[in-house]
């Protein structure tokens, strides 16, 4: 249990997908104008990461590896299978969101289906493979990574809501400021980088 | 009234030379309150404008400045094994401290104010007082031997990227002084971390090394010889066994025992230890904090909750006790490092902190909590408060957002 908590904390705060690896930047920068939509997208990312990670683990363990049911090394199919799993999960999230919160569905717009190509999701799955996690660890990693990304996007959304009232120089308004904020946030997040929970 | 007449005489024409007039206005309002006052509506009429607020903070820091200057010299002579008593060799320690501190102060303020003036000119508004406090804080949180060009770069980064890009004074998200320090910390780590940097005036801290004295020391030597006082001796050398390690560096290696082998608790409490220029003396910082509290500038909520957060975490780490550093009794954690400086002058910055009262409790508590984690658990950094405050600066708008939202919900229910 302690091991799983370590992986969760590490992937959420120390190796934050958004602010340490700068993954998933397109939707991170585009949908972070208000806290409400950022909150919705963040939850969707947590959900998709938390679901796709264990499914992808099962696929790479039982279908693609040499010890799997086909008995041969099919890792060259990894990328395409991961993407299709992610795409189908996103489709599911989209239907759920549309059914239960049409307003959020409308405000997320194209960025909800675009979670499919959100590099944080695919990146998470590929990290999981390269770090050789087992099933429960991959669940913890998926949820932790999603939570870290969620925290990063609602924080930047709150900041961007606040600086709407600031006299930001014209050329920097909008996306320019978002890039600057992301960089400075990455700097602030370095406070927890370097902690190794397994060392204790 | 000689000064007022002088100001009247040199006042530039506001229409013809708007930039010169704002420049004049900036200095005029340091000495006098401006003539333009609110004319209608109900307002609290008080001289407490932005500049007065800032000057109160600067005043609260003065004791740290005095002690810090002297301590730079004191540490220098401790390394040489000369004048071990605190007040022995007073003139030498004071002069060495001034030679180290004055350039840092001048460079930080000239660079920062030049940028401030340039942006005031570009944007066509009055000169903002924002840099007064940052310019006074930055020298206090730098190591005494920092190269001037690195200092200048860090100030430029902090003021341009950290403040002017956000629209100037009062609109920054991250603490400007801490941004300049964090810039040096990540861009030029060897100048601000490790055992070598906290004792000034040596190229390398190891036994037998001679101090490096420049022309300024030579100038003062002539004066001291004329006055028949002891003078700087460039032939003296660092004594055996002197490492320049700060209490925190010692504690992270060997726990509290390793600290007390080198420093006494009284030394650490009063601040005669190596460290950043202004952060070593706890009682003087507490006096500054009391001034800030009495004038109502700093928030007692943030200070108290930060203290509580740090105590809670230190106590939890005691209970955990996996490394010698974690076993340092929680009350002794406050003898080391810059907790009080961060609490009094950094976390309470009203611009970057949370602005709701509930938010202030959460904000302060988390700074104390995370700062202690970074200090004790994270091997990458010697001290945690700088990064913990920047981390919580990031989340302060979010905390405010949810506090306000929950207040709104509560009121809707009551309505």
Verbal overview:
The complex is a heterodimer of chains A (200) and B (415). Chain A is mainly α. Helix content of chain A is 67%, strand content 0%. In chain A, helix 3 (35-64) runs parallel beside helix 6 (119-130), helix 3 packs antiparallel against helix 7 and helix 7 packs across helix 8. The longest helix of chain A has 30 residues, at 35-64. The radius of gyration of chain A is 18 Å and the shape is globular. Chain A starts with a helix and ends in an 11-residue tail after the last helix. By secondary structure, chain B is mainly alpha-helical. Chain B is globular and about 70 Å long. Chain B contains 16 helices and no strands. Helix content of chain B is 60%, strand content 0%. Chain B has two domains: 16-29 and 50-239, no CATH class; 296-415, no CATH class. The chains are: A mainly alpha (200), B mainly alpha (415).
SSE layout:
The complex is a heterodimer of chains A (200) and B (415).
Chain A (H helix, E strand, L loop, with lengths): L1 H13 L10 H6 L4 H30 L13 H23 L1 H7 L10 H12 L4 H28 L12 H15 L11
Chain B lengths: L1 H9 L7 H14 L18 H11 L1 H19 L9 H34 L7 H10 L7 H13 L15 H12 L27 H12 L20 H16 L2 H6 L11 H13 L5 H21 L18 H8 L10 H21 L7 H30 L1
Helix pairs in contact in B: 3-6, 3-12, 4-5, 4-12, 5-6, 5-7, 6-8, 7-8, 8-16, 12-14, 13-15, 15-16
Class of secondary structure makeup of chain A: mainly alpha
* Beta-strand segment tally of chain A: 0
Number of helices of chain B: 16
The whole-angstrom Rg of chain B is 23 Å
Distance between the termini of chain A: 15 Å
Give me a quick take on this structure.
The complex is a heterodimer of chains A (200) and B (415). Chain A has 200 residues and is mainly alpha-helical.
What descriptive keywords fit this protein?
heterodimer; A: mainly alpha; 8 helices; B: 415 residues; mainly alpha; 2 domains
């Amino acid at each position: 249990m302690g091991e799983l908590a370590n992986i969760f904390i590490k992937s959420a705060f120390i190796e934050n997908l958004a602010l340490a690896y700068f993954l998933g930047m397109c939707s991170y920068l585009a949908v972070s104008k208000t806290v409400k939509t950022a909150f919705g997208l963040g939850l969707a990312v947590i959900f998709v990461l938390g679901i796709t990670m264990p499914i992808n683990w099962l696929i790479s363990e039982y279908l693609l590896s040499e010890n799997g049911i086909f008995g041969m090394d099919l890792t060259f199919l990894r990328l395409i299978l991961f993407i299709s799993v992610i795409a189908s999960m996103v489709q599911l999230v989209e239907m759920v969101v549309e059914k239960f919160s049409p307003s959020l569905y409308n405000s997320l717009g194209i960025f909800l289906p675009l979670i499919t190509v959100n590099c944080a999701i695919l990146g998470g799955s590929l990290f999981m493979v390269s770090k050789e996690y087992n099933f429960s660890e991959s669940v913890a990693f998926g949820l932790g990574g999603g939570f870290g990304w969620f925290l990063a996007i609602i924080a930047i959304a709150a900041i961007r809501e606040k600086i709407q009232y600031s006299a930001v120089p014209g050329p920097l308004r909008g996306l320019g400021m978002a890039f600057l904020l992301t960089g400075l946030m990455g700097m602030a997040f370095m406070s927890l980088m370097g902690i190794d929970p397994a060392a204790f | 009234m000689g000064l007022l007449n002088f100001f009247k005489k040199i006042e530039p024409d506001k229409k013809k030379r708007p930039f010169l007039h704002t420049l004049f206005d900036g200095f005029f309002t340091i000495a006098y309150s401006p003539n333009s006052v609110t004319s209608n509506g109900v307002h609290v009429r008080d001289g407490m404008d932005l500049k007065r607020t800032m000057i109160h903070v600067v005043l609260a820091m003065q004791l740290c400045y005095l002690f810090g200057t002297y301590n730079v010299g004191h540490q220098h002579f401790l390394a040489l094994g000369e004048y071990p008593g605190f007040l022995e060799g007073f003139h030498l320690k004071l002069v060495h401290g001034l030679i180290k501190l004055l350039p840092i102060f001048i460079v930080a303020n000239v660079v920062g104010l030049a940028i401030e003036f340039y942006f005031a000119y570009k944007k066509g508004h009055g000169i903002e007082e924002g840099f007064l406090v940052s310019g006074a804080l930055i020298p206090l949180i730098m190591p005494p031997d920092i190269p001037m060009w690195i200092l200048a770069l860090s100030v430029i980064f902090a003021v341009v990227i950290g403040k002017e890009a956000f629209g100037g004074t009062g609109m920054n998200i991250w603490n400007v002084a801490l941004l300049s320090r964090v810039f040096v910390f990540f861009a030029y780590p060897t100048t601000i971390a490790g055992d070598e940097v906290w004792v000034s005036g040596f190229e390398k801290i190891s036994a037998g090394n001679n101090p490096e004295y420049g022309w300024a020391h030579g100038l003062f030597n002539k004066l001291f010889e004329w006055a028949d006082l002891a003078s700087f001796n460039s032939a003296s050398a660092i004594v055996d066994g002197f490492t320049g390690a700060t209490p925190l560096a010692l504690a992270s290696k060997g726990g509290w025992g390793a600290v007390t082998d080198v420093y006494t608790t009284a030394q650490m409490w009063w601040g005669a230890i190596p460290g950043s220029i202004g952060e070593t003396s706890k009682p003087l910082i507490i006096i500054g904090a009391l001034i800030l509290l009495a004038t109502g500038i700093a928030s007692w909520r943030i200070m108290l909750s930060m203290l509580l957060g740090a105590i809670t975490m230190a106590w939890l780490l005691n209970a955990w006790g996996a490394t010698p550093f974690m076993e340092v009794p929680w009350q002794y954690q406050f003898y080391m490092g810059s907790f009080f400086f961060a609490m009094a002058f950094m976390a309470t910055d009203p611009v970057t902190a949370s602005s709701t009262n509930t938010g202030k409790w959460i904000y302060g508590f988390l700074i104390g909590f995370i700062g202690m984690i970074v200090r004790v658990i994270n091997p990458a950094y010697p001290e945690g408060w700088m990064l913990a405050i920047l981390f919580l600066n990031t989340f302060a708008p979010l905390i405010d957002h949810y506090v306000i939202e929950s207040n709104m919900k509560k009121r809707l229910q009551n309505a």
